[in-house]
Amino acid sequence: MSRLDLIRKEEKKYHDFCYENYKLFEEGSWLYKPVKTVMDLLPLFKDKKDTRVLDLGSGVGRNSIPIAEQIKNNNGKVVCVDLLSSAIEKLHRYSKEYSVGEVIELVKADIENYQIQKDEYDFIVAVSSLEHVSSEAIFEKVVKQMALGTKTDGLNCIIVNSDVQEIDLDTNETIDALIEINISSVEMIKKLEDIYDGWEVINKWVKPLKYKIVRNDREILLKTNAITYVTRKII
Fold it and tell me: Does pTM surpass 0.85?
């Protein structure tokens, strides 16, 4: 099994477990609430008609469902793309439960292969998903597609991990971080700045995070610098 296949297998196992054992918007996991940065941008679309939103790596809808609730009365649409069948199935169920089924369009696909048309979206969200594409070149390709697919005055909201470390809590040993794209915060920000040259930067910061995960019955401390990068297309 290649390293990429191993990483994808472990990610699927972890996310399938979370989606099966934790309910959306209930305490106990990261599914408890949507990302504040994403929610803080929603008032910009409150009165806008026909808002088109793309959520790349949507999971079960912790961001896309609140977005859909915000735009559903103005003929909005949220396209949700995720590779995992478990995510798509749960999101379909949750979209009905939260009365936004008609607003959400489900697409089962790898985000690195999903085609975004030029000037298609008002708002594109990618939260903890871009670091899971298969290479740095693919990362750049996907972000460039996001930029191309954004309408004038539209927003891109990216939250991406960098400088990821994994530490075995039993042995205190630093182990191979099972993540596809793992580069420094400086490198990651430079890539984003180059791609979004000429755009208005609304938010840009790096936040160190650490939390425990379980991988193959081992407790792992995962440390990362989470980059938030929000830009508006003004060109």
Answer: yes
pLDDT of residue 214: 81
pLDDT at 116: 97
Segment 185-221, tens digit of pLDDT: 999 999 999 999 999 999 999 999 998 888 778 898 9
**Tokens at residue 30, please?**
């990261």
Rounded to whole angstroms, how far apart are CA atoms 158 and 144?
12
Residues 25, 61: Cα–Cα separation, whole Å: 10
| Residue type (1 letter), 116 | I
Distance (Å, whole) CA 109 – CA 87: 11
> Whose structure tokens read 């530490």?
167
Q: How many CA atoms lie within 13 A of 130 on its CB side?
A: 31
Q: How does pLDDT run across 13-60, given as a tens digit for each residue?
A: 888 888 999 899 988 888 899 999 999 999 999 889 999 999 999 999
Give me the long-range contacts of 109-115 (CB less than 8 A, separation at least 24): 109/81, 109/82, 109/83, 110/83, 111/56, 111/57, 111/81, 111/83, 111/142, 112/138, 112/141, 112/142, 114/56, 114/81, 115/145
